[in-house]
Amino acid sequence: MFDSQVMMSRLKDFDITLQEEDADIVVVNSCTVTNGADSNVRTYINHMRNLNKEIYLTGCGAHTKGESLFEQEKVFGVFGQSEKERINSLLNEKKRFYELGDLDFIDENIVEEFAGKSRAFIKIQEGCNFRCSYCIIPFVRGDARSMDEEQILRQIEILAANGFGEFVLSGTNVGSYGHRQGHSIAGLMKRISLIRGVRRIRIGSLEPIQVTGEFMEILDEPWLEKHLHIALQHTSDDMLRLMNRRNRYASDLKLFEKLAEKGFALGTDFIVGHPGETDAVWDEAINNLRRLPLTHIHPFTYSKRDGTPSALMKPEINGAVSKIRMKTVVETVDENNLLFRQRSKIPLEVLIENEKAGLYHGLDQFFNRVIIKSHDDLTGNWVTLENYEVRKDHNYAEL
Ligand code: SF4
After folding, report:
1. What separation in Å is there between the alpha carbon of 131 and the centre of ligand 1?
2. Among the four residues 142, 171, 239, 392, which has the most C-beta atoms within 10 Å?
3. From ligand 1's centre to the CA of 358, what distance in Å?
4. Model's pTM, two decimal places?
């Protein structure tokens, strides 16, 4: 999203449309997290070729599939992330090109506005030093490196002056921010909170070991979103070892309980069906998961990624079994989420994002969806709700 925004802001000689049918040129900013993602990109590119579009490929997929797509002449040009600022001149090139650029590249862009959004996404770092067995990201995004702190602050100052109040800190492994420079995510957030106009700060995702003593000290700050997304990926230690993860269940449970006591809504990533997730492992995992005070979940069904250690692991888990496990995980956390919202006594601070058919949609400080019926145009506003109805999938109010 950030990368797309940068590219859109650099296109001077072209008109931008988000509707492919209106376009002569299609720039595919691709993801490569799974083999599935790569094959979706291929299918999409073939489809666009049939519509006679001139196609360019960028994003992580440029690193994994760019070469073959370029050789097969399915795309006119391929460019890596570090080259995205040159998009205007690249798209003016008359000759086909393949320019992956530098994998250790770090952004120095200031994006001043995010069209149509009330929250601004700020990329603060890139890459990852972890080597989870199933993950291709470090190979396509490189090792962790951070954006310059002063640059980030300047970026947020401009956005805040342009009316943005909520900032989402994003990256590949956001919690590793600043480790090379001796900075930290907590330190950065404290500095961001001092900028005039900043009302709420959210972190895309943290690893459990990144919730340090220093981080614990900012938990009571009013500007910190009362929701943390902490990536566990699994709740069985056997699986965590196979996945080459750095977290373990007992300490994860302790951490989550401590955060829940402080009133936080808690989310996580969870992978079902990774090789080795036998019935016994699963039984342990689901029991453990039920003990966690989780309110949000971002579950994935394991998808093999060639070139990763997990791709060679056995036994593989049948897709139908994974599907059932996935359903159990989602239902468990959905129930928790409903209970959390029913028990919550605190007024909701909602940032309204958009309107659909007279209903305004936004997110509260717990990262829960709120729908408000109103005759006033609330888009982009902050609304405090004392009275609202807790519905199964969201909270609802009329103003
Ligand atoms: S921490 Fe995240 S990005 Fe890094 S290797 Fe693990 S899953 Fe991939």
Report:
1. 6
2. 171
3. 40
4. 0.80
What residues have CB less than 8 Å from 244, skipping those under 6 apart? 130, 131, 132, 133, 309
Domain span holding position 143: 119-343
Q: Is the CB of 60 under 6 A from ligand 1?
A: no
185 lines ligand 1 (CB under 6 A): no
Asked if residue 109 belongs to a domain, the reply is: no
CATH of the domain at 130: 3.80.30.20
Q: At which of 71, 99, 127 does a domain end?
A: 99
The total of structural domains in the chain comes to 3
Whether residue 155 is found in the same domain as residue 221: yes
Q: How far is the CA of 145 from the centre of ligand 1 (A)?
A: 14
Residue 271 Cβ < 6 Å to ligand 1? no
Number of H helices, E strands in the chain: 13, 18
Tokens of 198: 């900043």
Place of tokens 């925004």: 5
Dig out the tokens for 129 from the structure: 């030093």
**Strand, coil or helix: what is 170?**
strand
**pLDDT tens, residue order, the chain (399 aa):** 668 888 888 888 999 887 888 899 999 988 665 556 667 888 889 999 888 899 999 987 787 788 888 989 999 999 987 788 899 999 999 999 998 877 766 666 656 556 556 788 899 999 999 999 999 888 888 899 999 999 999 989 988 888 889 999 999 999 999 988 899 999 999 999 999 999 999 999 999 999 999 999 999 999 999 999 999 999 999 999 999 999 999 999 999 999 999 999 999 999 999 999 999 999 999 999 999 999 999 999 999 988 899 999 999 999 999 999 999 999 999 999 999 999 998 999 999 988 888 899 999 999 999 999 999 999 888 999 999 999 999 999 999
Asked if residue 132 has its Cβ within 6 Å of ligand 1, the reply is yes
Distance 127 CA to ligand 1 centre (A): 9
Q: Which residues does 356 contact at the CB level (< 8 Å), separation at least 6? A: none
- Return the residue whose CA atom lies nearest to atom 6 of ligand 1: 132
